[in-house]
Amino acid sequence: MPEQHRGSCLCGEVSYEIRGALRPVVACHCRQCQKTSGSYVMASQCQAADLVIIGESLKWFTSSETAERGFCGTCGSNLFWRRFGKDYVSIFAGGLDLPTGLVLESQIHCESKGDYYSLPEVQQVEQSQLN
Ligand SMILES: [Zn+2]
Ligand SMILES: [Zn+2]
Hints:
The protein is mainly β and about 130 residues long. The protein contains 1 helix and 11 strands. The chain is globular.
């Protein structure tokens, strides 16, 4: 059976299916993730062509010159991150239905982490090493 995952926002107006493989989870400690999520994010990733979004309330916010963030316009859940011109989408792991079968494998932007928590015990890598 081909790999398939589902997920949704908090209110359920946005749901999605991923009809393909998901990358292991990466934690990101950058300031943008802190601001949008309330702490830090943990995200998987899939090929853009494998992601099917269901519902009308998804909004995209241009968060930098190179990327945008997808969230539910009704409940505000952070769902996706994608870099302009690339064929992959990061999927914030908290939106995925359980069990995900995924494992947190690495983390990025540790230098800008919040001072109120400890880093998880996984390898630290550069964002450029991921894609
Ligand atoms: Zn919602
Ligand atoms: Zn980040």
